Amino acid sequence: MADDPFDITSLRIDPTDPAYVGKAAQSRKQRKRGRHFIQVPFGWLEHLRGASGQVYALALHLLYLHWKANGAQFKLPNGMLAIDGFDRSAKWRALVELERRGLILVERRPGKSPRISVL
Predict the structure, then answer these.
(1) How many C-beta neighbours within 10 Å does residue 60 have?
(2) How far is CA 83 from CA 14, 27, 35, 64, 78, in A?
(3) What is the mean pLDDT of residues 106-118?
(4) Taking the domains of the chain in order of start, what are their residue ranges?
(5) CATH: 1.10.10.10, 3.10.180.10, 1.10.630.10, 3.30.70.20. Which one for 39-118?
(6) Which of 21, 64, 103, 113 is the most exposed place for a label (fewest CB within 10 A)?
(7) The Cα angle at residue 23 between residues 20 and 29, in degrees rounded to 5
């Protein structure tokens, strides 16, 4: 029975095999995003001088979403931000800071994701 193609021991995957490590934990959307890049305008770099790491990271994320939306206004849900290490309160603190720096406009909608316009 060693050559049986339906033998359960022959179908097991070794979790330490490098070919499978980390693949199951990432969604297709996350793997696809890993191949993308972001262009940052110099004006944004000047406005972001002295900003915290979370504000800077969210600014880069917003530039990517702005490009993906072809320059249109877009929603900013919590899902993908949570994967990147942002909780809801950190998202809102960073949005307020970016709005204060004059980089974005935030349309606040109670109970819904905010709509972002990049300036």
Answers:
(1) 13
(2) 26, 11, 17, 16, 9
(3) 92
(4) 39-118
(5) 1.10.10.10
(6) 21
(7) 160
Distances in whole angstroms, Cα of residue 46 to Cα of each of 41, 103, 116: 9, 11, 20
Question: Given this model, what pLDDT does residue 47 score?
Answer: 93
pTM: 0.71
- The pLDDT score that the predictor gives to residue 38 is 87
Confidence at 36, pLDDT banded by 50, 70, 90: confident
Q: Given its phi and psi angles, is residue 85 left (phi above 0), alpha (psi -120 to 50 degrees) or beta?
A: left
Span 54-99, pLDDT tens digits: 999 999 999 999 998 998 999 999 887 887 788 889 999 999 999 9
Task: Tell how far CA 71 is from the center of its chain.
Answer: 18
The position carrying tokens 């050559």 is 3
Query: What are 44's two structure tokens?
Result: 């944004």
